[in-house]
C-alpha cells in the first residue's frame, strides 16, 4: 500500500495491572444542611481502542495536522493511526468527482489491510469473518463523503465523517449552526449536505472564505485566520451560536476563531469530536448495523467473479 500512515497514542493501562472493579453507586445519606447528597459512581479502565483516521486526499500534511490536533484531548488507551490516500487520489477534495475518485483509491488501498495479518486470506471479502485491525474509523473530510457509506458496508466497526460529527455536536450544544467553508462551491455542497443530515431547520447556512483547500496551508496563516474569523462573524450575525470548521485543514485555527466570536459561541472541530464520538460508540459496544442499508455487497461481487476490491 503506497499510502502513508502515522500513529498517535495515549498511554494505556499496563497489562500487568489488574482492572479495578467499579464501586456501586453510593446511597444518599441524610444531610444536616439543605445541600443534597447525590449518588455517584467512579469510572475505571477499559480495553484499548484503535481508531483509523482516514484523510481521503493525498496531502500528507493534513493527516499530520489532524493527528497533532488530537493529542491534548485523546483519552488514555486510545490509539489513532493516520492514513493518507495514495496517489492518484486528488490532493484536495473540492467537488463531487474529487470525492468519488478519492473514495475509490482509499477503498482499494485500505480493504486488504484492515484485518490482522494472520487471518485467513480466503475470507478477505467477507466483513466480520476476520479479526479487524481497527475498532472504528474517522473519515477526515468535511463533506458527505462517499467513503463513509462504502466503509460502513465493508467494516464491522463504526464509521463517522467529520462533517456529521461536527453538525451533530453543534446541534447538541446550540440552537443554530453555521459552517465556515472554503470556496463558494463548498458553500453549496455543505448546505446540501446539511439538508441531507436533516438539520436544515437548525442551520444558518455556510459562509465561504474564498480559499481553496490547499491555500489553508500555502497562504500566510494570518490571512487564513482573518478570512476564517470574518466568515465566522458573518454566521454569528445570522444567528449561529455554534460555528463548525468546514475543512480538516482548519483544525489548527479553532482557538483564533473562538477568540473572535466570543465565549457565547461554540466553535466545533469535527476531527476532535469525531474521535470522541467513536470512542463512546466503541465503549458502548455499538457497531455498524448489517441488516439493512449497510449490509456488505462482498458476496455479490464474489458471485459475479469480481472479488478484486
Description:
This protein is of the alpha/beta class and 309 residues long. It has ten helices and nine strands. The protein has helices at 60-70, 96-110, 146-154, 162-173, 184-196, 215-218, 221-237, 254-261, 270-283, 298-303, and strands at 4-9, 49-55, 78-84, 136-139, 159-161, 177-180, 203-207, 242-245, 266-268. The strands form two sheets. A five-stranded mixed β-sheet has the order 1-3-2-4-5, sandwiched between helices. α2 (96-110) runs parallel beside α3 (146-154), α4 crosses α9 and α7 (221-237) crosses α8. The longest helix has 17 residues, at 221-237.
Summarize the structure.
With 309 residues, the chain is α/β, with parallel strands linked by helices. The chain contains ten helices and nine strands.
What is the topology?
Elements: E1 4-9, E2 49-55, H1 60-70, E3 78-84, H2 96-110, E4 136-139, H3 146-154, E5 159-161, H4 162-173, E6 177-180, H5 184-196, E7 203-207, H6 215-218, H7 221-237, E8 242-245, H8 254-261, E9 266-268, H9 270-283, H10 298-303
Parallel strand pairs: 2-3, 2-4, 4-5, 6-7, 6-8, 8-9
Antiparallel strand pairs: 1-3
Helix pairs in contact: 2-3, 4-9, 7-8
